[in-house]
TrEMBL record:
Source organism phylogeny: Bacteria, Pseudomonadati, Pseudomonadota, Gammaproteobacteria, Oceanospirillales
Domain of life: Bacteria
GO biological process, alphabetically ordered: monocarboxylic acid metabolic process
Family in the record: Belongs to the short-chain dehydrogenases/reductases (SDR) family.
NCBIfam families: PHB_DH, PRK12429.1
Entry protein name: 3-hydroxybutyrate dehydrogenase
InterPro entries: 3-OHbutyrate_DH, NAD(P)-bd_dom_sf, Sc_DH/Rdtase_CS, SDR, SDR_fam
Organism encoding this protein: Neptunomonas qingdaonensis
Length: 260
């Protein structure tokens, strides 16, 4: 479905981002993945996607806190692939604290990585998408783009901002064959969440199953974690011709959380 298209997926060496990168590659898109961490592990991830799906896969270590590195990542992808047709803004971090105790550096970093980075990468890809008359921009939001939870002020503010950015850019690009949408997952089962289950169980003196059902999944009526493959499937669909008239939306993938 996406043969001949080229994608950049930020924050894509694990979890949701990696699943989206693999989903796009499976459909024939060349992909640039992005992340920090161990260079050898990142190279292994890059090579495995390329081998599994026989597409060109590049890696960028661009730091999402630095606008010049973000612009450089997009320029590198355009030079190597010839275009960036699909952009997935997925990089994100979290920190939990009451507002009065929230460290200012944590606030600044969460807003920068979860929101401002998406602005910089989006700004960089728009000229090419407008020129070619085709593009797909997908932002990983969260159920917290639609509702709030206590102690997550920076994250909720950033994700609400992503929803607003999505709508605005969608309107600006509506006549240029380019759609802009956000996906709003609930609790997604990732290695990071799996570790949090064990840590929370130990800290609270309860079982891991109690953590899952009574703490993490309390807000999700299905009482099931969203899978990374479910989120990736939505991203792939948004890149399809069948989704050409879906733009400016924030699509909940959260087991009914925001229906309550």
């Amino acid at each position: 479905m996406l043969t001949g298209k080229n994608a950049v997926v930020t924050g894509s060496t694990s979890g949701i981002g990696l699943a989206i990168a693999r989903g796009l590659a499976q459909q024939g898109a060349n992909v640039m993945i992005n992340g920090l961490g161990n260079p050898q592990e990142n190279e292994a991830i890059r090579a495995s996607i390329q081998a599994d799906f026989d597409v060109q896969v590049l890696f960028s270590a661009a730091n999402m806190l630095k606008s010049d590195e973000i612009a450089g990542m997009i320029a590198k992808a355009e030079q190597a692939f010839g275009s960036v047709d699909i952009l997935v803004n997925n990089a994100g971090i979290q920190f939990v604290s009451p507002v009065e105790d929230f460290p200012e550096d944590k606030w600044d970093a969460i807003i920068a990585i979860n929101l401002t980075a998406a602005f910089h990468s989006t700004k960089a890809v728009i000229p090419g998408m407008k020129q070619r008359g085709w593009g797909r921009i997908i932002n990983t939001a969260s159920a917290h783009a639609l509702v709030a939870s206590p102690f997550k002020s920076a994250y909720v503010a950033a994700k609400h901002g992503i929803a607003g950015l999505t709508k605005t850019v969608a309107l600006e690009l509506a006549e240029f064959g380019t759609t802009v949408n956000a996906i709003a997952p609930g609790y997604v089962w990732t290695p990071l969440v799996e570790k949090q289950v064990a840590d929370t169980a130990k800290a609270r003196g309860i079982t891991e199953e109690q953590v899952k059902q009574d703490v993490m999944l309390k807000a999700q009526p299905t009482k099931k974690f969203v899978t990374v493959d479910e989120v990736a499937a939505v991203a792939v669909f948004l890149c399809s011709d069948g989704a050409a008239s879906i733009t400016g939306t924030t699509l909940p993938v959260e087991g009914g959380w925001t229906a309550q």
